[in-house]
Amino acid sequence: MRLLIVEDEKRLALSLAKGLTAEGYAVDVVHDGIDGLHRASEGTYDLIVLDIMLPGMNGYRICSTLRAAGNDVPILMLTAKDGEYDEAEGLDTGADDYLTKPFSYVVLVARVKALLRRRGNGGPSPVHTLGDLKVDTAARRVFRGEDEVTLTTKEFAVLEQLVLRAGEVVSKGEILEHVWDFAYEGDPNIVEVYVSTLRRKLGASLIKTVRGAGYRLEAPR
């Protein structure tokens, strides 16, 4: 999943980005409201962590502008303010959840995961089953039959993009967008490397290459 953090406290933003990257997400960070709105409007994100008090444009305006444009990306608002009025205003502008600083990092991660599940990318259950392949996107565990398969963070992230759209063709570009962050300037063929590793660990017939289009996850036989 690809996340955007819009937070002007640079130390906090970079700390959150480091932690969420370790959780397996691709994370982009901006520190200005106008840049945040531009990136949110132009990029493909699964969730936005949005501070309210920002230079250039505050979080309320960013959120309301995105919603007015039909962008339904889940938004988790952060603020140093406290009080029912601030929370109500944030939710009225279209935010999905609200967290007051200071907050526990564990709580933030739990809120992020809950919002991603709620969005329903993979249906109401985080467990996806194809034949004898079972992928639990909440617990980040993968099984072939009774045997658990150990994957690295990036390997799981690539597999997650395929399993959420099982049976559909997922392009290399779409995988890059969601698994690697905006600043990635390496070889786009890195996707092929990870797909090759997944085939080795999970079975060669699991991921089909659709020439010129991308990859398709099929139920193992």
What report would you give on this structure?
This protein is an alpha/beta fold and 221 residues long. Helix content is 40%, strand content 22%. The chain contains eight helices and twelve strands. Strands 2-1-3-4-5 form a five-stranded parallel beta sheet, with helices on both faces. Strands 6-7-8-9 form a four-stranded antiparallel beta sheet, with helices on one face. It has a three-stranded antiparallel beta sheet with strand order 10-12-11. Helix 2 runs parallel beside helix 3 (59-68) and helix 6 (153-163) crosses helix 8 (190-202). The longest helix is centred in the middle third of the chain and has 15 residues, at 105-119.
Briefly summarize what is shown.
This protein is an alpha/beta fold.
For the secondary structure, the number of strands is 12
Distance between the termini: 28 Å
Radius of gyration in whole Å, from Cα?
18 Å
Beta-sheet strand percentage?
15-25%
* Structural class by secondary-structure content: alpha/beta
Total count of helical runs of at least 4 residues: 8
Question: Which regions have little confidence, pLDDT < 50, spanning 5+ residues?
Answer: none
Strand order in the sheet with the most strands? 2-1-3-4-5
Order of helices and strands: EHEHEHEHEHEEEEHEHHEE
The quaternary state of the protein chains shown equals single chain
Helix fraction bin? 40-55%
Largest beta sheet, briefly?
5 strands, parallel
What is the 3D form? elongated
How much is the average pLDDT? 84
Provide the fold topology:
Layout (H helix, E strand, L loop, with lengths): L1 E5 L3 H13 L3 E5 L2 H10 L4 E5 L7 H10 L6 E5 L4 H9 L4 E4 L4 H15 L7 E4 L2 E4 L4 E4 L2 E3 L3 H11 L5 E2 L1 H8 L10 H13 L4 E4 L3 E4 L4
Parallel strand pairs: 1-2, 1-3, 3-4, 4-5
Antiparallel strand pairs: 6-7, 7-8, 8-9, 10-12, 11-12
Helix pairs in contact: 2-3, 6-8
